[in-house]
Amino acid sequence: MTSTRPVPRAGLALAGLALLAACSGPAADNTTTSTGAAQTPTGDLRVAVVTHGTAGDAFWNVVKNGATAAGEQLGVTVDYNSDGDPGRQATLIDNAVSQEVGGIVVSMANPDALKTSIENAVKAGIPVITINSGSDKSASFGALAHVGQEESVAGEQAGQKLGQAGKTKLLCVIHEAGNVGLNQRCDGARTGFGGTVTNLQVDINNPTDVESRIKGALQTDPSVDAVLALNPQVAVSSVNAVKGASAKAAVATFDLNADVTAAIKAGDVLFAVDQQQYEQGYLPIVMLKLYRDNANTVGGGKPVLTGPGFVDESNVDKVAEYAERGTR
Predict the structure, then answer these.
(1) What is the reported pTM?
(2) For 133, left (φ over 0), alpha (ψ -120 to 50), or beta?
């Protein structure tokens, strides 16, 4: 399966709305004065993007690139901040509220830790769009919409692909404790795989230990014939671990970067699940501008899906060009 999947209706709507925002901007607003004359919203729109990524993380750099590009194209000021600690991420949201920003975009790897801060933003009249993780809590927290990938669905499809490749014993590597989305990926893989799935907890902040733990697991159980990484950095560690253990396990991964596309080309990675995180940065800026300028909403209460797509040997050459420039 390649990434040329049908675009969800919400995605088609967003493409049209992005064009509307770029071409007509605030002039498309239908607000009128008491005399019936058209009235354009005044003042700059400032949006705070608060994610749970860490500085320098290749995945979140692409999200940031998307948000920054949308801001530049639409005349929106984008303040991007990230922190992997849920408590500090909540503080960043609180700071954005105190600064009276015009909108907030937030990823929810640990929704319960962010609940109060997000609800306080909504009470303050600040529209919130959630991205990436926590889609099942988004509406209940008061967010306008969620943009991202349904992790359990993506995990199930990844498991199916590995099962179809003839694999029977899978090691699913979780690299962040407490990240609900990662557990959903492994749970989905367990549903779709059809064979035995074992979770392995590692710490992404210690790459040497990540590789060592995966290598140890493969040496302990040589019958493991597939490794599913949930992050590009862990995918590279998985490839090294397989080689170091002289194992025959196939490696697949979630998410892309230039290292992953190179590994797919080399035959070291079977496929990557692509959630197109550039869109997770870009689309919420478009949505918040249209909401501010024209009271538009997108998704009809359902998540706006950016994935899953799949990148493998059939389409990796094209996608690699975009990964190199930081947009995939």
Answers:
(1) 0.81
(2) beta
